[in-house]
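User: Show me sequence and structure for the first protein, then do the same for the second.

Assistant: Starting with the first protein.
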Amino acid sequence: MPDVLHTLAAATGNAGSMSLLDYILAGREIGLVIILLSFVALGLVVAALIRLRLSRLAPPETIDELDRMLRAGEIGRAVELCNSSVHDSFLTRTFGPALVRCARSPFGFLELKSALEESGQQEVGRLQRWTDYLGLIATVAPMLGLLGTVFGILVAFDAISQTEGVPRPGELAGGISQALVTTVMGLIVAIPTTFAYTYLRNRIDDLAQDVARICEELAVHLEQAGGGSSQPPAGARPRPRPSPAEGARA
């Protein structure tokens, strides 16, 4: 047994001379899958950082237009603006359906508040679906690393069982390298992805609160006008809600 342990130590003794490419190749197929997941995670993080900006979720020009229309009591035009694909945003998808419900409900402004909460929660869930993929990668990456470790150990022990006497270090190096490298690769991907997942979820919550404050400021004009008694035009309807699949692609 001491001879076998000495052989294992010798097999990993040349790790310092390995290049980055050598480490990647040592991970074999499972290592390549982990690397692919790292690129997917990076792309999701970059896309989320681009999307999760207040200027995109609630464009200033849209806020100004809605403010002007609501001050003038033009609720119908405000609904049309929210339903327009040109002004599509988190703000309009939240405020538009709430305006329609407010205008059609006998409860007026009280209905607007509950409608804003419901539509806001739906839009937050739509944004969070992007981060769910990051959470999945953060969970799967270390499990793939563990799988590679098990395969690597199996390869190493298979080499020992097929060798008479003490196996040569070269016969064990492949399996041992895969066992160690895949574990490290899985953790390297999982740890920053977990940090990114947590950061983006918190950012979504913060931005949702900012948009909610903007909606409350816009809703003040309806309250001053008597709870939004003006009716939207006959053809004005709330924008259809995207399906989960469409929301994930948005």
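Switching to the second protein now.
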Amino acid sequence: MMIHTLIVDNDMLFRAGIRMMIDSSSDITVAGEATTGLEALDMIQATNVDIVLMDISIPQLNGVEATKKIVDIPNCPKILILTSYGMDEELFNALAAGATGFLLKDSPPEGLLTAISSAYNGNAVISPQLTNKLVEEYTSKENKVSPINQALSKLTDREREVLELIGLGRNNAEIAHELFIAEVTVKTHVGRVLRKINARDRVHAVVLAYHAGIVKPDGGPDSDSVFYGSKQSA
């Protein structure tokens, strides 16, 4: 199945570079390009788009405001925010607004293509270089994360194992394989974990897992690659 992408950036050379990377793939194509948030909204409603690759600082609706409007569109595409600056206020807000994830603009071609495919399949995408900043930004903004340790005490041993694997970016099938349980059982555990720790989704759960020390930043098995974790609520 072909994945249709929309590149949103007001830098013509950068758009050309992204297009070249995508053109090297046999199952991903560029459906269009836009230079502003408003153009992106128009194209999404007029064109078949699965993934939006969007710069955070585009004019006429920046990445945050554009994300808020895109997620309100029925059957909206997934949104990957691209940034040159690392984690900042706007990037955090875009994630909170409903972006599927974010990548640094200097990510290698294979990392970008894998991120697009992963986002298309319903996964969250987070550059590991930005994970520490995400945790710092989140904890500085929400004092509510402090009760996470109290919430953890409500988890069963199995639910804690599931949370740890979520924090490492495992999807349901991978968790089932590692714990030798059925995938439907994993889905049940994930739902209970999210409710007990009051996480909006699995990206939120990842942040809480890092903050609580269940998962150590950059301590995963492949810390130089892009982190992928299912964003589905269960």
